[in-house]
């Protein structure tokens, strides 16, 4: 696990955008794993700027969204499908139908989950997965107690996650769905490179467990310690509880530019 601590979200966005641009240069038909939430906003903004400037293209790329609420109508602005379209997909040059997400409106939800796993596999798997982290250590919507071997499935959201996300629903906790579909932890581990982004003091405890804690279903993100290629991009506030923070900083300072992440 490579841990990179920089000063702010803009710098994090630049580093992640560099990795995505380099991947698309090497492999224009790469498959990207896309996260919603506020953490990746700076990355998507930077990629939209680069795409406008003709420096990167998503024309041949594919995308898979991590998770989706169950029970929101198709046109609801907080449906993750609509969120990711507005935040990223519609701002760059993806082809029609290139980005897929779990179908939270399906009549048969387990079948929709199985179909989603099949679709990711049929696309050749995810080359680069962008991830955020919840304050309770969830990734995608794999809440504490999630099976470390889980695949895409239905989950019940914790009160903490629903409270965290109420800001997107006019601060009305009752308006936040109680259920979701989410890629499982094993689904996420199949991605070849995982880039996790976290900013702010409120993420410091989850980041502490992710990077330096014991692997446990109680802090689901810790399963990433078993992945061979994870990059964790943090601002100073999110890194404040890391014991080895000086070592991570020194290591990154000494890293040759050509190496990438
Ligand atoms: C949400 C999403 C996650 C996201 C996380 C953190 O509930 N399901 O995919 O990474 O919580 O969100 P944010 O980046 O807004 O802090």
From TrEMBL:
Signal peptide: none
A Pfam family annotated for this UniProt entry: Glucosamine_iso
Catalytic activity: alpha-D-glucosamine 6-phosphate + H2O = beta-D-fructose 6-phosphate + NH4(+)
Alphabetical list of SUPFAM superfamilies matching this protein: NagB/RpiA/CoA transferase-like
Protein name: Glucosamine-6-phosphate deaminase
UniProt site positions, description: Part of the allosteric site: 146, 153, 155-156
Xref: CDD domains: GlcN6P_deaminase
Stated regulation of activity: Allosterically activated by N-acetylglucosamine 6-phosphate (GlcNAc6P).
UniProt similarity note: Belongs to the glucosamine/galactosamine-6-phosphate isomerase family. NagB subfamily.
InterPro entries in UniProt: Glc/Gal-6P_isomerase, Glucosamine6P_isomerase, Glucosamine6P_isomerase_CS, NagB/RpiA_transferase-like
Domain Glucosamine/galactosamine-6-phosphate isomerase: 16-227
Annotated pathway: Amino-sugar metabolism; N-acetylneuraminate degradation; D-fructose 6-phosphate from N-acetylneuraminate: step 5/5
Function text: Catalyzes the reversible isomerization-deamination of glucosamine 6-phosphate (GlcN6P) to form fructose 6-phosphate (Fru6P) and ammonium ion.
Source organism (scientific name): Mycobacterium deserti
PROSITE patterns tied to this protein: GLC_GALNAC_ISOMERASE (PS01161)
Record has Hydrolase as a keyword: yes
Keyword Membrane: no
Catalytic activity, EC: 3.5.99.6
Enzyme class: hydrolase
Swiss-Prot/TrEMBL keywords: Allosteric enzyme, Carbohydrate metabolism, Hydrolase
Record-annotated active site: 67 (proton acceptor), 136 (for ring-opening step), 138 (proton acceptor), 143 (for ring-opening step)
């Amino acid at each position: 696990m490579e841990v990179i601590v920089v000063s702010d979200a803009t710098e994090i966005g630049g580093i992640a955008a560099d990795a995505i641009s380099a991947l698309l240069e090497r492999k224009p038909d790469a498959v990207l794993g896309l996260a919603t939430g506020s953490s990746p906003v700076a990355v998507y903004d930077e990629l939209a700027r680069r795409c406008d400037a003709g420096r990167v293209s998503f024309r041949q790329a594919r995308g898979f969204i991590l998770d989706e609420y169950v029970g929101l109508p198709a046109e609801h602005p907080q449906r993750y499908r609509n969120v990711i379209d507005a935040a990223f997909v519609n701002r760059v040059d993806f082809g029609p139908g290139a980005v897929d997400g779990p179908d939270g409106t399906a009549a048969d939800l387990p079948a929709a989950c199985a179909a989603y796993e099949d679709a990711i596999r049929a696309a050749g798997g995810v080359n680069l997965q962008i991830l955020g982290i919840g304050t309770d250590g969830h990734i995608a919507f794999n809440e504490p107690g999630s099976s470390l071997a889980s695949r895409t499935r239905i989950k019940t959201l914790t009160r903490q996650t629903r409270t965290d996300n109420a800001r997107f629903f006019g601060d009305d906790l009752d308006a936040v769905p109680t259920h979701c579909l989410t890629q499982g932890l094993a689904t996420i581990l199949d991605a070849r490179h995982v880039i996790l982004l976290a900013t702010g003091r409120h993420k410091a405890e989850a980041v502490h467990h992710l990077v330096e804690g014991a692997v446990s279903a109680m802090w689901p993100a810790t399963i990433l310690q078993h992945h061979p290629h994870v990059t964790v991009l943090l601002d100073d506030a999110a890194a404040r509880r890391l014991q080895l923070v000086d070592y991570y900083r020194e290591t990154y300072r000494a890293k040759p530019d050509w190496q990438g992440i």
